[in-house]
Structure formats: structure tokens, C-alpha cells
Specification:
The complex is a heterodimer of chains A (114) and B (619). Chain A is an all-alpha fold. Helices cover 72% and strands 0% of the residues of chain A. In chain A, helix 1 packs antiparallel against helix 2 and helix 2 runs antiparallel to helix 4. The model of chain A has no long low-confidence stretch (mean pLDDT 88). Classes of the chains: A mainly alpha (114), B mainly alpha (619).
């Protein structure tokens, strides 16, 4: 296993956070949030990767075969479900914001300050 | 009894699914829906109460009977001890109270309200009982998604959209950083079960990866717990969420974040990080900073729900300080204070809800003197405010007293803390309770001079009309009774803590919670470590004179401060056109800007700073 996947993870997190901090468009920000979350897929799969391992279906390859870690794949799958729920909710809020106030700029939507 | 573990999350989830599935049948039958939801929530409360009282030294439940073998967890477990089951029980009790309150609260209570509340309850319960770090993340997200949806329950206004989005994005970023930490720890230890991770990291040399993993995991929890500088979302969300939901946000959700941090430290990483004074200092510093910042923001606020929200931030800081002392007494004090604070703050939010329901505003300036006819509500609100000021025998008094007693004796244990903590707690209690008493005096009793015009007043006066039913001449009993019950529970928690049996049980539970080896052998099996007798206390902690004096000082101080704030125009020193806080307005607003970009910047800066500090102290 190389260090390469982990550099990719760090890069994706950094890019996503940069977008969240600088963007002035809600849809863009929500996509950046998805980008941050995508880093966790890469990290999980990278953590469970075994060089030369095959997909963990032990039925036809025998119990002693070298396989990648199935646990992290289950975790990544759960993670995708979580992401779908959060993203759908956030996008529906963004749609509401645009419908009612005609803006997607978080600076214009901020009602409470201080 | 072991059936109670799965049932306590299955019941709310199944009832929520049932309410959704049969929503066409239940169309227009709001009483049936309400009754079903309240019954489900109350049954969860009873189940969790039984778990709290009966677990004793703690118990573990393995789903589908996949028991661990040879110290390796194969399945997924729930663990219950008095502290975590008790916290979940607090959540279920507050949930029941707020659903009864909501009965006649909304103009139109849609089917989704009860569904979301029940999934929120399931998320909170699962989060408390989870014995597995990945499950902890999943329950955290379930709780989160329901909470985001509940915050933005009325998306026809600007505030709920802003609050919901800020809440959701900040907490999601925190949660993903937590997941990153979990993945890193899994990569190192090959385990997701807390007990198994704990055995691995405490028997291997602590590497930088473990420290970074710990830092990232607690980041999400610090965001949830609203610890400075991760706290900005909280006030935005609490100001706009429907008031019955605020009860849960303030009373238990924030505290769940703190519970998560305590669980991560005591059950997983404590031994590996070495229970040293340096860690204690870091958390104590965070706690004190949070307590002070929250209290200052609280006092300058005029929007009642936001004011209460900032007081929650301040209290979260105090609870974190209690945990940071790393003593059983400190943790027991924090647990008692969380319990009492949950009841008291719940009653205050419900009182604010009644004000909103009857007077259609939560702006203190606008409401001045307009609540005179709400006598019962006013009385309950005032008593709850005094409870927030640690009036004996409210549980907040003994809870904070135990924390400060433990801090005063800290020098003997070689950990952080000192007698100064009592002064900080007292000052923060005076500021937060003083602000709430100022609201009570102005709104319900018309004390003080009529306020000047507040430019934001007119806007905010109309803002909340959509939330609550209007045109009623009397406050419904479904609103008054839960409020009164919560006030009584706040007192009862304090009286119970005066009983030696309860106090010893609580401190023993705290000592057990802090016993990492015992937790690992409870979950994974293996020899129970033999502990010297003094580990588990035999005599109840004293009610020290210092604690009583501090409590009385904070009550007197809060009343004085509230009166000063109401009558300051008559004071000769202040009369000459002095406007409190005007000059600082710009600076204060530039911190709490309401813009998500700034909050994320603070989050990233906070993680970086905390990481730097941890790297310095753990070398």
C-alpha cells in the first residue's frame, strides 16, 4: 500500500473546504460539501486495500484467498446513504431559498447577526 | 431486560415509519397522530429509565447474538451504564414534554413533525448506547438529519433557511472529519468497537496517527457540543427552530456532543493519551473560554430564544470544564448539572414558546410589560430562571458545586483546576441567569423603564407569526403542564442529589465510566481488573460551604444584575446617554456574522489550533 491514496484524500478535503469557505453560491457550497465527504470514500477504500487482493466474495475463491477488506466497503456504502439524505435535504432548502427570496448568496440570506 | 436495548431505538423508528405509511388514513386526525407519537416517546422514556436504574455496573447487548470471541468484536453492541442510559432517558423525557407542548402549538401540525421528532429520538438514543465508533457516526447523522429538517420546519422565512443551512453544513463538515478520524483509527487498529480499539491503543505505543484520529473524531462532537470556536451555528439554529424543538436542542443534543467526547476519552483514548494534566488543561481552557464567550453574548441579546441559546453555549462550556477535571466528582457534577440544566432550560424554552404563542413575539424590547396577564407562565419562567442561577435546591446548584469542589481540590491530584474555577462559574451564572431574569422582570412584571425603540423590533415582532396558533384567549393546559413538570423535575433532581444514596450511586457511576479497563472487559469479556477499594466512593460528597456560598452569590448577583439592567437609566453614573454595547456592536457582529463561509473558516482554524496544541502537549 502506498501513501498516494492518502495524499489524494488530503487534497480532496482541502479543495472542498476551500470551496466552502470562499463560495458565495449555496448550490456550489453544497457540492463542495459533497466533495469533502467524497474524501472519506477514498480514505475508507484506501485503508482497506490489500495489494493483490480480489473482491471479497469468498464463495468461489475459497476462504483463504487474499481479498480486500469488506468492512470498509460496507462503511463506504453506509456513508453514501448518509450523503444522499443530507444532500437532498440541503438542496431542498436551497430551492426554497431561491424560490422565496430569489437569491442563493449566503450573505443575502443571513438574517441574524451578532 | 436485554430486549430493552433494541426496543429503545426500534419503537420510535417503527412508529415513525408507521405514521408515514398510514398518513393518508391519519389525514386530519391530529389527535390520533399526537397520541401515538407521545405514547411511543413516553414508552422509550420508561424503557431507558429501567435501563438506567437496573444496569448497575453496566451491561452490553450484542445484536443478533454475535458475541465477541477472543477479544475480537464480531458484531455490533449497545452498552448501557447509568450515565449514558440516563442521558438518553433525559432526551426521551424532554421529547415527551415537548410533543405534549406541541399539541396545540402549531397552526397546522403536519404529519412530518412527529415523524421527524421520533427519528430524532431514535438517533439520540442510539448515539448514547452505541458501543461502536462507526455506529456512533451513523446515529450522529440520523440525529443530525432529523434536527436539520426540524430547524427548517417553516421554510417560508429567511431565518429558518439560514439557521437550517448553517446548522446542517457546519455539523456535516464536523461529522465528515469525525468519519475521517474513524477511518484512520480503523486503518491502524483494525477495529471499530470502542473497547477493542481501546485495548489496541493502550497496549501499543501512541503514534501521531492515534492523536490525529482522536482529534478528528472529537471535532464533530465539539461542533455538536457548541464549544468555542465551533459554536456559531447554535444560536442561528436555536433562534429559528420551532420552540418545542429548541427544548431538545438545548436540553440534550448539545450535551450529547459532550457525552461523545467523554466517551471517546474515557472508553477509548484515555490511557493512550496518558491521563495527564496537559490534556486536562486543554479541555479546561476550552470549557472556560466557551463559558465566558457564551455568557457575554447571552447578556447582550434581546431575542429571547437566541438569549437562551447563548446561555446553553455558556453551560456547555461549564459541563466541559467539569469533564476536563478528570475526576469522578467532576464528571458526576457535570452529569447532574446536565440533567438539571436540561429540565430548567426546557422549561425556559417552553415558557418562551407560550410567550410566542400568546404574544406573537420573542423580542424582549417589544414585549416589555406585555406579558403581565400571563401570571402562571411568568411565575414558572422566573422560578426556572432562578434555577439557572443555581438556586438551591435545584440540581444545577449541586452539580456546579461538585465541579467547583473538585476543581478546588485539584492541586492534590496533579490535574488542572483550582479555586478560581468557582469564580468563573459564578460570573457566568450571574451573566446568563441575570439576562434571563431581566427578560422575566421586563416581560412578565413590567419592571424597569419602558425601553427605547429598537430598530429590529418591528421586524422581529411580525416574524414569528407563522409558527404558532393565534387568537386564543387562554394558554392551553397542554402547554402549561409540561412546563410546570419540567420545573418540578429540575427541583427534584437537586433534592435527589442531596440523598446520600443517589449521590454515591452517581459518583460510582462516574468512576465506572472513567474506568477504561473495566469497560473493555465488560464489552469484550476477560478478567475484571481488581481495583483498590477507594476507586469507587463509599461516602457521598459533602455539600460544602463554598458551594452554598457560590450558589447564593450567583443568585444574588443575577437578581442584582437583572435589576441594574432594567433600571440602568435611573442610575446617576449611567444616565448620560450611555448605550450598553453600542460601540462593540460591529466587532461582535463580525464574529457571529450569520454567514456559513465564516463558520467553516472558524471550524478549520479551530481544528488546526487544537491540533497544534495537542501536538505540543503530547510529545
Amino acid at each position: 500500500m502506498t501513501v498516494f491514496p492518502f495524499l489524494v484524500v488530503a487534497w480532496i478535503v482541502a479543495v472542498g473546504l476551500y470551496g466552502l469557505i470562499t463560495s458565495r453560491d449555496l448550490i456550489h457550497q453544497i457540492v463542495c460539501l459533497i466533495v469533502v465527504q467524497s474524501s472519506t470514500y477514498v480514505l475508507l477504500l484506501g485503508v482497506g486495500y490489500v495489494t493483490g487482493g480480489v473482491a471479497p466474495y469468498f464463495y468461489d475463491i475459497g476462504r483463504r484467498a487474499l481479498a480486500v477488506d469488506p468492512v470498509v466497503q460496507a462503511l463506504a456504502l453506509t456513508d453514501v446513504v448518509v450523503e444522499a439524505a443530507v444532500t437532498a435535504l440541503l438542496l431542498s432548502l436551497a430551492v426554497q431559498a431561491h424560490k422565496r427570496f430569489g437569491t442563493l448568496d449566503p450573505h443575502d440570506l443571513a438574517e441574524f447577526k451578532g | 431486560m436485554s430486549q430493552l436495548f433494541p426496543l429503545s431505538v426500534a419503537v420510535p423508528l417503527l412508529v415513525a415509519a408507521g405514521l408515514l405509511a398510514f398518513r393518508s388514513l391519519l389525514q386530519g386526525k391530529r389527535h390520533v397522530r399526537g397520541l401515538v407519537a407521545v405514547a411511543a416517546s413516553a414508552s422509550v422514556a420508561v424503557m431507558l429509565l429501567v435501563l438506567t436504574l437496573r444496569t448497575g455496573a453496566g451491561s452490553a447487548y450484542w445484536f443478533a447474538g454475535f458475541h465477541p470471541s477472543g477479544g475480537v468484536a464480531i458484531g455490533i453492541d449497545f452498552t448501557a451504564g447509568p450515565l449514558n442510559a440516563g442521558l438518553a432517558c433525559l432526551g426521551a423525557v424532554l421529547m415527551t414534554a415537548s410533543m405534549i407542548f406541541a399539541w396545540r402549538y402549531f397552526t397546522q401540525v403536519g404529519a412530518y413533525f412527529h415523524v421527524l421528532m421520533l427519528t430524532f429520538l431514535a438517533g439520540m438514543t442510539g448515539f448514547c448506547l452505541a458501543g461502536d465508533v462507526f455506529d456512533l457516526f451513523v446515529w450522529f447523522e440520523l440525529m443530525g438529519v432529523s434536527a436539520y429538517a426540524l430547524t427548517a420546519y417553516r421554510p417560508e422565512e429567511r431565518g429558518p433557511i439560514q439557521g437550517g443551512l448553517n446548522f446542517a453544513i457546519t455539523n456535516s463538515v464536523g461529522a465528515y472529519l469525525s468519519l475521517t478520524g474513524i477511518a484512520m483509527i480503523y486503518g491502524r487498529t483494525g477495529a471499530l468497537n470502542m473497547a477493542q480499539i481501546s485495548r489496541y491503543v493502550s497496549t501499543h505505543p501512541t503514534s501521531g496517527l492515534v492523536v490525529i484520529g482522536f482529534l478528528l473524531i472529537i471535532t464533530g462532537l465539539l461542533v455538536k457540543a457548541a464549544i468555542v470556536p465551533f459554536h456559531f451555528w447554535l444560536a442561528d439554529a436555536h433562534a429559528v427552530a420551532p420552540t418545542p424543538v429548541c427544548v431538545l436542542f438545548s436540553g440534550v443534543m448539545v450535551e450529547l456532543g459532550l457525552y461523545g467526547i467523554a466517551r471517546m476519552y474515557w472508553s477509548v483514548f484515555g490511557t493512550a493519551l496518558g491521563h495527564r494534566a496537559a490534556i486536562s488543561h486543554v479541555f479546561l481552557g476550552l470549557g472556560v473560554l466557551t463559558a465566558i464567550v457564551g455568557a457575554l453574548y447571552c447578556f447582550r441579546e434581546r431575542h429571547i430564544k437566541r438569549l437562551l441559546a447563548f446561555s446553553t453555549i455558556s453551560h456547555a462550556g461549564m459541563f466541559l470544564a467539569g469533564f476536563a477535571l478528570l475526576t469522578p466528582l467532576g464528571l458526576a457534577g457535570a452529569a447532574l448539572a446536565v440533567l438539571a440544566h436540561g429540565f430548567v432550560k426546557g422549561a425556559l424554552f417552553l415558557g418562551a414558546g407560550i410567550v410566542l404563542h400568546r404574544l406573537h413575539s420573542v423580542n424582549e424590547t417589544y414585549l416589555h410589560g406585555r406579558g403581565r396577564h400571563l401570571r402562571l407562565t411568568g411565575a414558572m419562567f422566573t422560578i426556572a430562571a432562578l434555577g439557572l442561577a443555581d438556586l438551591p435546591p435545584f440540581g444545577t446548584f449541586l452539580g456546579k458545586g461538585w465541579i467547583t469542589d473538585s476543581a478546588a481540590g485539584a492541586a492534590n491530584h496533579g490535574v488542572a483546576g483550582g479555586p478560581w474555577l468557582a469564580a468563573v462559574f459564578c460570573a457566568c451564572s450571574v451573566l446568563t441567569a441575570g439576562a434571563v431574569l431581566r427578560v422575566a422582570g421586563g416581560v412578565f412584571y413590567g419592571l424597569g423603564d419602558p425601553p427605547g425603540e429598537d430598530p429590529r423590533m418591528a421586524a422581529e415582532a411580525n416574524e414569528e407569526k407563522g409558527e404558532s396558533d393565534s387568537g386564543r384567549q387562554r394558554t392551553p393546559l397542554t402547554m402549561l403542564i409540561p412546563t410546570g413538570v419540567l420545573v418540578l423535575l429540575g427541583v427534584a433532581s437537586g433534592i435527589a442529589a442531596l440523598l446520600p444514596r443517589f449521590a454515591v450511586a452517581l459518583e460510582t457511576a462516574a468512576a465506572r465510566f472513567q474506568d477504561q479497563q473495566a469497560y473493555a472487559s465488560l464489552v469484550l469479556g476477560g478478567a475484571q481488573p481488581a481495583h483498590p477499594a477507594p476507586l469507587y466512593p463509599q461516602v457521598p460528597p459533602d455539600v460544602t460551604a463554598a458551594a452554598v456560598i457560590a450558589a447564593l452569590c450567583s443568585v444574588a448577583g443575577a437578581i442584582l444584575l437583572a435589576l441594574t439592567a432594567l433600571y440602568w437609566r435611573r442610575l446617576p453614573v449611567l444616565r448620560k446617554g450611555y448605550e450598553p454595547g453600542r460601540g462593540l456592536q460591529g466587532l461582535i457582529e463580525s464574529f457571529q456574522s450569520g454567514v456559513i463561509n465564516d463558520y467553516i473558516t472558524w471550524l478549520v482554524a479551530g481544528v488546526a489550533a487544537l491540533g497544534g496544541i495537542l501536538a505540543l502537549v503530547i510529545r
